[in-house]
Amino acid sequence: MDFHALRHSFLTRLARSGVAPAVAKSLARHSTIVLTMDHYTHTLIEDERAALDRLPSINAPRANVAALAATGT
User: Does residue 60 sit in helix, strand or coil?
Assistant: First the structure.
């Protein structure tokens, strides 16, 4: 692993841990957030799976559907 690969790993781990993008940009000493977020951070399949798991179920309970219909939403 070379130094450049370590920068990718470091910035990806910062992003995965919830560090604000502006902080990651500053730590990387990048001039733009685009460089930091688009080129140096990477999503992992586990991150994508976790994001999809947080979506609400499409099978809403009937009482909830009735309440929404009653309010016109």
Answer: coil
Query: Tell me, what amino acid is at 27?
Result: L
Give the pLDDT of residue 24.
95
Cα 37 from Cα 25, distance rounded (Å): 8
What whole-number distance in Å separates Cα of residue 9 and Cα of residue 42?
8
Collapsing DSSP to helix, strand or coil, 72 comes out as coil
Q: How many CB atoms lie within 10 A of CB 41?
A: 18
How many structural domains is the chain composed of?
Answer: 1
Residue 18 sits in which domain range?
A: 3-71
In angstroms, rounded to a whole number, what is the distance separating the alpha carbons of residues 42 and 57?
27
- pTM comes to 0.64
